[in-house]
Amino acid sequence: MTTIKTSLLCGALLGALAFGLHAQQTQLAPAQARITDEAIHADLGSYERTQLRIKALNDAGRPVRDYHLSKAQCWLDVSFHEYTRNDRSAFPQEALGESETLINGMEQGVSPLPTDTPLINGAARVREDLWQRLGAIHGTPGFVCAQQAVACGEVELVHAGNEFNQQQWRHSKPYIQIAEDLVSDAEALSRQCGTGPGGGADVRPAETVLTANILFEFDRTGAGDVRAYSLQSLDRELGRLREENLRLVAVELVGHADRLDGRGAPYNQRLSELRAQTVRGLLLARGVDAAIVTSAYRGDTDQVQACDGVTPRAALRECLIPNRRVEVRLVARPG
Predict the structure, then answer these.
(1) Which PROSITE patterns match (predicted)?
(2) Cα 207–211–213 angle (5° rounding)?
């Protein structure tokens, strides 16, 4: 009998907690009603009130860098962004709901707050490699410094997945680039945590790995076929070595191809080899010692972007560009 009563009590408490977290959910005007000044003005007022609740939490002592406060802000930001772009799907409402759920929990002092990131509005889970890199930061000592970038990176990946579902890769790509930048920033903040002025003893690991992906045009392998923004990401990571006083001890290159000529095709294997050789040359031109560079080639066996159902052919090629990559792993030690 005691066990039954305990179970019922626990169930009631969990139900009350769930109710509290989801209380006071703001309802935006239905999409078909967003045609009058009155409806839009009311919705803008809802966004403003939600922003003021976030500000009040910050004013009460919860820092801007806090994971949950940051996540509430980023959910609010992407909701408002899509609302102003006239997104008529459920995304603005559901993103606003995620923001309010976190706000409710923080206001009520709930602990622990959830750390999951729902794929709202049926968003595609794009770029599993970026999800994994963000997930690896959770639970590490450096998370305390990186939590804002981690939270917003996770939200932007959902944002990108929603855009992918609605308008395919062309509309998703800008948000993927934002997410990539946030992942890189989160990793840097995590590495540097506790090592700056006033940060105490240097607690950095004996070895650190920085990552960049160099992307190639379809069926191309030369230096002139590299997407400029991906090369900029490599230069940024090389710059971080200097900024963080890290000494480069090894560079690991892994070449890849997309799936368009058939999984495991020898042709794609050769593309991955040539791409890795091109990136090796780019690194040597930047002063990297050839003796510390190693290469591996995986053809089309490791796809990070599926692009199922994407048409026409030109759109599919563009969508698959994350698979036409050379992964660059910069292994470094404190200088």
Answers:
(1) OMPA_2 (PS51123)
(2) 160
CA distance 171 to 230: 18
> β-strands 246-255, 293-297: how paired?
parallel
Domain residue spans of the chain: 20-183, 206-334
Per-position DSSP letters for 101-146, written without gaps between them: HHHHHHHTT-SSPP-----GGG-----HHHHHHHHHHTTSTTHHHH
Gap between the Cα atoms of 92 and 319, Å rounded? 24
Mean pLDDT of 276-288: 98
How many angstroms separate the CA atoms of 216 and 226, rounded? Answer: 5
Q: For 288-312, what is the mean pLDDT?
A: 93
Which residues, in sequence order, are bridge partners of residue 210? Answer: 330
pLDDT at 306 over 90: no
The pLDDT value recorded for residue 308 is: 85
pLDDT tens digit string along 10-40? Answer: 443 344 444 455 556 899 999 999 989 999 9
Q: What is the pLDDT of residue 261?
A: 78
Distance CA 111, CA 105 (A): 8
Q: Is the peptide bond before 112 cis (omega within 30 degrees of 0)?
A: yes
State how far the Cα of 101 lies from the Cα of 134, in Å rounded to an integer.
Answer: 22
The pLDDT value given to residue 196: 53
The yes-or-no verdict on residue 169 having pLDDT over 90 is: no
| Rounded distance between C-alpha atoms, residue 208 and residue 196, angstroms | 16
Reported as type and span, the H/E element at residue 52 is: helix 37-59
Rounded distance, CA 283 to CA 306, Å? 29
pLDDT at 330 over 90: yes
Domain 206-334, architecture per CATH: 2-Layer Sandwich (3.30)
